[in-house]
């Protein structure tokens, strides 16, 4: 059993019968890219709420809208493109969503966290 319990992702296939699948699953989880490596044009998918939201000071209501944006991107399984790198080196994405009244709202998020993966196909050849 790996230290991450990844063997359980392939329950009916013993490791000795298909080691390449297990190796690929381990690689997906152990070689997470850094947001610092993102470039303008990279296509990514938000796949989880950032770990930082587990910290208590994010539960005071000020971050509810940001949390909802992450949740929306995850549920929509949306591929977004890095459109800007700011002066602090943080990559930003822009996307549209529906607000509470059903109107289209333009949004942007800095992707300086562990919430994302490269999309399967990438215009810059990465991912």
TrEMBL record:
It comes from the Bacteria. It comes from Novipirellula aureliae. This is Uncharacterized protein.
